[in-house]
Write a structure and sequence with these properties.
- The protein contains four helices and two strands.
- By secondary structure, it is mostly helical.
- It has one domain.
- The longest helix has 19 residues.
- The relative contact order is 0.16.
Length: about 90
């Protein structure tokens, strides 16, 4: 791993912002409807990760999401820091 790029930290920063986005913009679906409404999941969550699971596993996941979203409600996106430089997560140019 390059000393300039801590990929684990980068992934954690991106996941945090994705969780805030989910919390804010899941919109069409409640946290209960979201797993069934996700056709494809790039984060390893939702229908992609829960398909074929026992209902108790799905209900546990829903409970965890509800708790996570309650904690994230009202939070702002965080800058993404790479090699000591912080980027606005909503800007596509560096």
């Amino acid at each position: 791993m390059s000393p300039l790029l801590d990929s684990k930290n980068l992934i954690e920063q991106i996941r945090h912002n994705c969780s805030i986005s989910d919390c804010r913009y899941a919109g069409t679906y409640s946290v209960c409807g979201w797993p069934s409404g996700c056709a494809i999941s790039t984060s390893g969550e939702g229908a992609g990760a829960l398909g074929g699971k026992d209902s108790s596993v799905v209900l546990e996941w829903i409970g965890e999401k509800e708790e996570e979203w309650d904690k994230l409600e009202g939070q702002e996106f965080k800058g993404i820091t790479v090699a000591g430089k912080t980027f606005d997560p909503l800007t596509w140019r560096g």
